[in-house]
Amino acid sequence: MSNGEKSDTNIKIAFFDVDGTLLPLSVREPSDKTIYTLKELQKNGVIICMATGRGVLARPKLKGIHFDAYITFNGSYCFTDEEMIHSCPIPKSDVLQILENTRGMGRAMVISNEKFIVANGMDEDLKTYFSFGGESIVIDEKFDEKCTDDIYQIMLSCVSSEYEKILHGTKGTSVTSWWDRAADLIPVESGKGRAVKSILEYYGFSKQEAIAFGDGRNDIEMFGAVGTGIAMGNAVDEVKSIADVTCKNVEDDGIYYYCVENGLIEPS
Q1: Which of 16, 103, 198, 239 has its CA 20 to 30 A from that of 209?
Q2: Per the UniProt record, which residue ranges are transmembrane (predicted)?
Q3: Residue 260: Cβ within 10 Å count
């Protein structure tokens, strides 16, 4: 049972984080109840939007589900099948500075855009980080050359005490994370919260007509951009403290039960 009394029957759009929200970590297919929920929401006229830290190429294809819109790279690249809604690459000078900083720290890094996702090395934490989404990353000999392309996200293994050193000398890049042994670097002018606002403006919906489900720290801004932010039962305490409501764990079909209890869908 969700721990709030809000009714969401006037909801027109729902945003869903992926890892830890739609999918348990290291699981590639959602439960039947999650699939049912997404389909029923669409049947009931609710727009569904994937809101993930994953890139365009790494977003999961869920069986029988076609999302209406996508927020990828933690908000740096947002689109529908028909058009681009929001695009915000990391400043090129920052990418090169971070490359220099991480090399000095002996850290490998991964860069990604809508065309490629490549690394200049690998370590155990980075392998684990990408294994959560069932991904394996290619080490590219032309990595430095690719750093001059538009880059929407940089990923590397690190702990919070290293953030300052990683970002030393940069002006337009910030850190977002949902795991304590790795981080995603995104443009300062990005983030899931800004992306949600762009999507709402695109569709002409108000904040109060939107809900969002998430479990990680990178979902906190998104909760602030919607009328109701719903933390998964498996979310970290910091996320639960910010959310309006906490539902069941992802493994216990929290999204399904929240939507049934709040009149968004009929029980399966």
Answers
A1: 239
A2: none
A3: 17
SS3 87: strand
- In order of start, what are the domains of the chain with their CATH numbers? 13-88+191-261 (3.40.50.1000), 92-187 (3.30.1240.10)
Stretch (H or E) spanning 8:
none
Residue 120: partners with Cβ closer than 8 Å, 6 or more residues away:
99, 108, 109, 139, 140, 143, 144
The structure tokens listed for 266 are 């009929």
Strands 138-139 and 117-119: parallel
CA dist 71 and 86 (Å) reads 9
**Other Cβ atoms within 10 Å of 135 Cβ, number:** 16
Percent of the chain at pLDDT exceeding 70 = 97
Q: Which residue has the higher pLDDT, 135 or 91?
A: 91
- The string of pLDDT tens digits covering residues 5-27 is 444 569 999 999 999 999 998 78
Strand stretches in 10-165, DSSP E: 13-16, 47-51, 69-72, 77-79, 84-87, 110-112, 117-119, 138-139, 153-157
**pLDDT tens profile 212-254:** 999 998 899 999 999 999 999 999 999 999 999 999 999 999 9
Q: Quick one: pLDDT at residue 25?
A: 81
CA–CA separation, 196 vs 222, rounded Å?
A: 7
Euclidean distance between CA atoms 240 and 29, whole angstroms: 25
What does the alpha-carbon distance between residue 5 and residue 10 come to, in Å, rounded to a whole number?
A: 14
**Region 146-174: what's the mean pLDDT?**
95
pLDDT for 9: 65
The per-residue pLDDT for 3 is 40
